[in-house]
Design goal:
The structure holds two protein chains of two kinds. Chain A starts with a strand and ends with a helix. Chain A has a five-stranded mixed sheet with strand order 2-1-5-3-4, sandwiched between helices. Chain A is 32% helix and 16% strand. Chain A contains five helices and five strands; from the N terminus they run E-E-H-E-E-E-H-H-H-H. Chain A has two domains: 4-80, Beta-grasp domain (Ubiquitin-like (UB roll)); 89-156, [2Fe-2S]-binding domain (DNA polymerase, domain 1, Orthogonal Bundle), CATH 1.10.150. By secondary structure, chain A is an alpha+beta fold. By secondary structure, chain B is an alpha+beta fold. Chain B has three domains: 5-51, 2-Layer Sandwich (Uridine Diphospho-n-acetylenolpyruvylglucosamine Reductase, domain 2), CATH 3.30.43; 57-171, Uridine Diphospho-n-acetylenolpyruvylglucosamine Reductase, domain 3 (2-Layer Sandwich); 178-290, Enolase-like, domain 1 (2-Layer Sandwich). In chain B, the strands form four sheets. Chain B has a five-stranded antiparallel sheet with strand order 4-5-10-6-7. In chain B, helix 10 packs antiparallel against helix 11. Classes of the chains: A alpha+beta, B alpha+beta. At the A-B interface, strand 4 and helix 3 of A face strand 1, helix 2 and helix 6 of B.
């Protein structure tokens, strides 16, 4: 039985404690230990962005962060985005623009979009496409996602 | 992923002592975007990961117009291109940090890690070479400095000895009428690995008509990134002209020793060295002219 470390971190504004092995990624901790299954495992090597979360205000691939590295840090996941009874404007914009089909990439795209709009509330299409380059979608062809991000930016203005 | 022990070092001596004690199965963890994937895919056998991100010296990002830039080994890309004065002084580095992976990778990955990973295709290394960067290395016997072009020894291998770690990169302050540029060829628009990369720095005279000095470096055309020393020397004292640029590009092609692989053939890579060297030089020159 491998040794587990005790980690205290803030997830979606709440203090959370968990035990994990050093080899467990933040993605594995979120999904397997904390049962926050919004972040998805796609490639598990930093190419697809399905596991995107926000760590201390920066977008990261949670598959490329160790759970033990999050001691004392703040993590934002898709589960913390919306108020309990209402979708977040980014989620609304993705629905209205049909910016998802199978949905596996969607939590990652939405967290990536949130990080973009937090830092750049009025991005150009060029900026949107480059910012989202690390999020792959095999269904939509991306145009609907770009339009959703543009609508979300307008809705938040 | 294999089991390993995670240790967050607080000081450089602590990290050095751990590296020295644990030997080659210990690795430094900075951004982790290469290391974690390598361990997960069993391409690297690691028993100890020594996280250095809590060490003050590796987080330094300090630019001074006279002293130049000190870039801590763990500073992530996004912090570098967020600094306007660093973007102005070292645009070649900025070109590279903005194209390594996507946004999420740039949130963790840094120039120091890109160097220590020692990929022949590393985007950050050609600009470091053309900007005369020095590696500040700490080890059991104290600190030593080596020029960045001597750091990579073969794919994935570096000049770091047992117990040594990269602490920071130091880049001299830019001279008057100088600039730098980096670009790569990839078949996509982003999120890809260089088929060939080329960096250039140039210093022009006050009239901006003659090249005082230039440096050219190449990625993905040899087992390590290359400093194209002869090609660079050809430009010193030459008036700005297409002929001078072409001569340097041909000399750069002459030192390329590319392989053929899934990303491109040796023939294509050799051709690209000429094209990209011209573009890198002209890009750096244009930045001086526009300043």
């Amino acid at each position: 039985m491998a040794i587990k470390s005790h980690v205290q971190t803030t997830i979606n504004g709440e203090t959370v404690e968990f035990l994990c092995e050093s080899r467990q990624s933040l993605l594995e901790v979120l999904r397997d230990e904390l049962h926050l299954t919004g972040a998805k495992e796609g490639c598990n090597n930093g190419n697809c962005g399905a596991c995107s979360v926000i760590l201390d205000g920066r977008l990261v691939n949670s598959c490329l962060v160790l759970g033990v590295e999050t001691e004392g840090k703040s993590v934002e996941t898709i589960e913390g985005l919306a108020a309990p009874d209402k979708l977040h404007p980014i989620q609304d914009a993705f629905l209205e623009n049909a910016a998802l089909q199978c949905g596996i990439c969607t939590p990652g795209f939405i967290m990536s979009t949130k990080a973009l709009l937090d830092s750049n509330p009025n991005p150009t299409e060029h900026e949107i496409r480059y910012w989202l380059a690390g999020n792959l979608c095999r269904c939509t062809g991306y145009d609907k996602i770009v339009r959703a991000v543009q609508d979300a930016a307008k809705a938040s203005a | 992923m294999q089991a390993f022990e995670y240790i967050a070092a607080r000081t450089v001596p602590e990290a050095v002592a751990l590296l020295d004690e644990k030997g080659e199965k210990a690795r430094i963890l900075a951004g982790g975007t290469d290391l974690i994937v390598q361990v997960r895919e069993a391409r690297r056998d690691v028993d100890w990961m020594i996280d250095i991100k809590a060490i003050p010296e590796v987080n330094v990002l300090a630019y001074d117009a006279e002293a130049g830039l000190t870039l801590g080994a763990a500073v992530p890309c996004y912090q570098i291109y967020a600094e306007a004065d660093i973007c102005d002084a070292y645009p070649g580095i900025i070109d590279a940090t903005k194209i390594i992976g996507g946004t999420a990778i740039q949130g963790r990955a840094g120039v120091g890690g890109n160097l220590c990973n020692a990929s022949p295709a590393a985007d950050c290394i050609p600009p470091l070479i053309v900007l005369n960067a020095t590696c500040v290395i700490a080890g059991p016997n104290g600190e030593r400095d080596i020029p960045v072009e001597a750091f990579c020894t073969s794919p994935g291998q570096t000049a770091l000895e047992k117990g040594e770690m990269l602490v920071a990169l130091k880049i001299p302050a830019p001279q008057n009428n100088s600039s730098s540029f980096y670009l790569r060829f990839i078949p996509r628009n982003e999120m890809d690995i260089a088929v060939v990369g080329a960096g250039a720095s140039v210093t022009l005279d006050d009239a901006k008509q003659t090249i005082v000095s230039a440096r050219i470096a190449l990625a993905a055309v040899a087992p390590t990134p290359l400093f194209a020393e002869e090609a660079s020397a050809l430009l010193a004292g030459r008036e700005l002209s297409d002929e001078a640029i072409d001569a340097a590009a041909q000399a750069a092609q002459a030192i390329a020793r590319p392989i053929s692989d899934m990303r491109g053939t040796a023939e294509q890579r050799t051709h690209l060295v000429g094209v990209l060297t011209r573009r890198a030089l002209n890009g750096a020159i244009q930045r001086v002219l526009d300043a």
